[in-house]
TrEMBL record:
Pfam families: COX15-CtaA (PF02628). InterPro entries: COX15/CtaA_fam, COX15/CtaA_HemeA_synthase. The keyword Oxidoreductase applies. Signal peptide: none annotated. This is Cytochrome c oxidase assembly protein subunit 15. PANTHER family: HEME A SYNTHASE. Pathway: Porphyrin-containing compound metabolism. The chain crosses the membrane at residues 12-32, 80-100, 112-129, 135-157, 253-271, 310-331.
Amino acid sequence: MSMDAERRYLALIYGALLLAVVVVGLGAFTRLTEAGLGCPDWPGCYGFLTVPQSSEHIAIASEAFPDAPVEIQKAWNEMIHRYVAGALGLIIAAIAFFAWRGQRRNRVLPTTLLGVVTFQAALGMWTVTMNLMPIVVMGHLLGGFTTVTLLFLLAWLERRRIVGDPMASVESPHVNSKLKVLVVSALIAVMAQIALGGWTSANYAAVVCTELPVCETDWLGRYDPSAFHPISPVKETYQYGVLTFDQRVTIHATHRIGAMVVALLILMLAWSVRKTLGGRASLMLTATLALQITLGVTNVVAYLPLSVAVAHNLCGLLLLLVMVKTTVQIFSPASVSVKQVPSGDTGRLSHG
């Protein structure tokens, strides 16, 4: 493959990564504006390919879905999310196609991505057809985070292969087993906290506690582990939540405690990687954590403003990516041999 072709392939991956982040943000916006059922059917909207807006189309939609009156703004929120997600799916399919055409390209991640985004489409459909069942909503959120993470890893690996990594031939200090245990623990904690955040949002438990540090009510006395049962009570719709107040308090309090655990582990990790990965890696961990805590506290004291809630979602994604990168760096060999194309070579990649 020529260098130009490889760079175009890399640009396609970066484009997909950027679009995937936009999809996650749009998903959060759709969920927070109560537009998850803005269109009561799937993949269209009230039987149309776009949102019905004329009086004639609205009359047809009202007749077809008498229990779901047309709310144009919410319907557009939902359909824009679907359009952008559909475009992302097509781009990921193209990446998988081009990955199998290149001899040295990573094929595992693009193929996995294609499977994940296909399952994401199914989750998107079930989110509507199952009327926002919490386990499906949370799964859809986690699928979006997984898609971004896999694209991030693919972009990183392909960039190292195509462009080279200036730090690849530099010996890094020895990484002891304690640091490996710490970074894995922190990564697992971050993933669990993201899932808890998704469960909190899906069960409409985000505003049941409005004081710090945990909850103003007797959350220990109200603690109900049944709040985490994956199968919710059978209801016609799960919009606005179906759990009891005690169950929602349980979810929210657990999410708060989880945030404390994550903060402690990441601060320990940031301190520990100063000599191994350098001050920049330590600062990135600390700064991202600080931003996420600030957004979380603002959500509580300002009663979940839309812009802050969406930013909190995206910052959680950023924290996950920073943790993934840190984990990969720590588990990488001390010295990685990456052959780089000489600066004067604009033709084919060297196969060494």
